[in-house]
Amino acid sequence: MRHLLDTKTLSRADALRILDVAEDMADTQQREVKKLPTLRGKTVVNLFFEDSTRTRISFEAAAKRLSADVINFSAKGSSVSKGESLQDTAQTLQAMGADAVVIRHSASGAPRTLAGSGWISAGVVNAGDGTHEHPTQALLDAFTMRKRRHGAGSRGQDLAGLRVTIVGDILHSRVARSNVWLLHTLGAQVRLVAPPTLVPQDVSAWPVHVGYDLDAAIAEGSDVVMMLRIQTERMHAAFFPTEREYSRYWGLDPERFAALGEGTMIMHPGPMNRGLEICSQAADSAQSTVLDQVTNGVSVRMAALYLLLAGERTATAPIDAHTN
Ligand code: CP
């Protein structure tokens, strides 16, 4: 794997390979010594032009657990504020020896531009670009669904027949887009529920069912309900339901939480707006996978970095073959 830019073009075989390698990585994280020497001598640059807690720290933890050196770059406080371009920033980091660049950017397509530009030779991982995609989030979500569904027998399994309902601000959500494509590739049935003003215009080309009534969707039943964050920072006020309207009609409040089947998994990529799109009872319940998603994110990102930076020489060898 040269780059990881999206899930729309990720093959089923590559998706399952990442999930299966992530299983191996998760096993190594149960050991007393979590660190593997696999990427010793490699340098991973976290290039973040937008804020992040989970994704940036998770990539840092993943790279360090594989013994890579990590350089964290945040646009805030850097020469980007003096007008330095993406090209010059990336080339500066490449000159410091980056083998992989993990990039989050407000512009949809920035990771693909970087990967195809010839400015750098490093592998590129998309850590979220505008409203386009967030592939490692979808992979960690799929990993979490698969783990809850199949437990120890997860390896090699897809998500055939799993009924997943994604609720909220679809319009601005790169998490929703990446999940839709990956879940479809893995055989799940995806339904979107959102205010009509927060559904993308091109949704008819997506492999999903679309509805606007959360209570009706809950009554029909789902194996997974994924609540999305309301992205007020990307919202045009004129098109947004008020917060009160939003939580009344599309929030997972205590009544709707009680109406979900006990076996329904409740997911949220974080950060959560508690009391707006999700109530604390749901977020902190046994059905919630919010913290499992964070834990699994490290294993999935270890797998992505491993396949990017060591994948060719390890195509047939187990991870422990490189623990010398
Ligand atoms: N889910 C997610 O991308 O969270 P952060 O913005 O904290 O990285």
TrEMBL record:
Residues 161-308 form the Aspartate/ornithine carbamoyltransferase Asp/Orn-binding domain. Gene3D superfamilies: Aspartate/ornithine carbamoyltransferase. L-aspartate binds at K82, R174, R229. It is an enzyme of class 2 (transferase). InterPro entries: Asp/Orn_carbamoyltranf_P-bd, Asp/Orn_carbamoylTrfase, Asp/Orn_carbamoylTrfase_sf, Asp_carbamoyltransf, Asp_carbamoyltransf_Asp/Orn-bd. Carbamoyl phosphate binds at R54, T55, R104, H134, Q137, G270, P271. Pathway: Pyrimidine metabolism; UMP biosynthesis via de novo pathway; (S)-dihydroorotate from bicarbonate: step 2/3. It comes from the Bacteria. Pfam families: OTCace (PF00185), OTCace_N (PF02729). It catalyses: carbamoyl phosphate + L-aspartate = N-carbamoyl-L-aspartate + phosphate + H(+). Keywords: Pyrimidine biosynthesis, Transferase. Its EC number is 2.1.3.2. Residues 2-146 form the Aspartate/ornithine carbamoyltransferase carbamoyl-P binding domain. HAMAP family: Asp_carb_tr. NCBIfam families: asp_carb_tr, PRK00856.1. Belongs to the aspartate/ornithine carbamoyltransferase superfamily. ATCase family. Catalyzes the condensation of carbamoyl phosphate and aspartate to form carbamoyl aspartate and inorganic phosphate, the committed step in the de novo pyrimidine nucleotide biosynthesis pathway. Heterododecamer (2C3:3R2) of six catalytic PyrB chains organized as two trimers (C3), and six regulatory PyrI chains organized as three dimers (R2). This is Aspartate carbamoyltransferase.
